[in-house]
Write a structure and sequence with these properties.
Elements lengths: L31 H15 L5 E2 L3 H8 L3 H13 L3 E3 L5 E3 L12 E7 H4 L3 H16 L3 E7 L3 H8 L7 E7 L6 H9 L3 E5 L11 E3 L5 H9 L3
Parallel strand pairs: 4-5, 4-6, 6-7, 7-8
Antiparallel strand pairs: 1-3, 2-3
Length: about 220
C-alpha cells in the first residue's frame, strides 16, 4: 500500500526581482508616490514571522531612476509604519508581522543624529546593537532620524505618530538639544540620554555613559530587568 506523500515545510515566497517591477510602463519617469505605493504593497505581501532582506536604497533608486535621497525618505516612511527596518550603512530588512511582536506593551524610540551617524562607524554599530538587543526582548523600536531640526523631531515623537512609544533613547545629545529634551519630557515620554556629560539645565535626566555595554543599557536601564 502506498504511503501518504510527506509534507514539506512551507517556504516563504521569494522577494520579486526589481527587473520585474514597474509602476507605470507608459511613463519614462516614475514618481516617488508610485514607488512608495509599490514598495509598500510588496512589503505587506512578503511579511512573515521573521526578519527578511529587502531591496537596498541604491538598487531601488537605480531601477526607478529616482534620487537615492527620495528613496531614503520613502524607506523612513515605511519604517514608521513598521514595515521596514533600515539603518544607513547597513542592509534594509523587512519587519516581521506585527502579530509576532508584543506591540501593545511598550515601544522605544532611538534618536539618530545623522550629522554624526554618517561619519562614525562606531555610532552606526551602536545603533544596530541597540536595536537588536531591544528586539531580543520583544519590544518594538522606532528609528527617529534627526536631520531637519528639533521641532521636526518633537513632531515625530508625538502620540499621534507613535501612540505606544513611551521611551526615547537619545545617543550622544548636544548641549543645544536641551530644550528639545525638555519638550519630549513634557510629551510624557521617558528620555534616556547616552552621554558622558550632564545636559545643562536638566540635572534630573537619566544619563548613561556610552562606555556601558548595550546589554546593560537595555536590560538594566531601559527595561529594568
Amino acid at each position: 500500500m502506498e504511503g501518504f506523500p510527506s509534507r514539506r515545510p512551507r517556504c516563504p515566497p521569494e522577494l520579486r526581482k526589481l527587473d520585474e517591477l514597474s509602476c507605470d510602463q507608459d511613463s519614462k519617469t516614475t514618481s516617488p508616490v508610485s514607488v512608495q505605493a509599490l514598495l509598500k504593497k510588496i512589503a505587506i505581501e512578503m511579511q512573515n514571522d521573521e526578519l527578511q532582506p529587502f531591496y537596498s536604497i541604491r538598487a531601488v533608486a537605480e531601477h526607478f531612476h529616482v534620487p537615492p535621497a527620495r528613496v531614503s525618505r520613502i524607506y523612513r516612511r515605511l519604517s514608521s509604519e513598521r514595515l521596514l527596518r533600515t539603518v544607513w550603512g547597513s542592509k534594509t530588512l523587512l519587519e516581521p508581522r506585527k502579530s509576532s511582536r508584543n506591540s501593545e506593551s511598550r515601544s522605544i524610540g532611538i534618536v539618530v543624529d545623522l550629522s554624526q551617524f554618517v561619519r562614525s562607524s562606531d555610532y552606526r554599530l551602536s545603533i544596530l546593537s541597540l536595536q537588536l538587543e531591544i528586539w531580543n526582548h520583544a519590544v518594538n523600536d522606532h528609528l527617529l532620524f534627526f536631520e531637519t531640526g528639533p521641532d521636526e523631531l518633537v513632531r515625530l515623537c508625538t502620540r499621534n505618530h507613535h501612540p505606544h512609544m513611551n521611551t526615547i533613547v537619545w545617543l550622544l545629545p548636544h548641549e543645544s538639544h536641551s530644550q528639545t529634551l525638555l519638550r519630549l519630557h513634557d510629551l510624557g515620554l521617558r528620555v534616556i540620554c547616552v552621554s558622558d556629560h550632564v545636559i545643562s539645565g536638566i540635572p534630573d535626566w537619566y544619563i548613561i555613559s556610552p562606555r556601558c555595554t548595550i546589554r546593560t543599557i537595555v536590560r538594566k536601564r531601559i527595561l529594568n530587568i
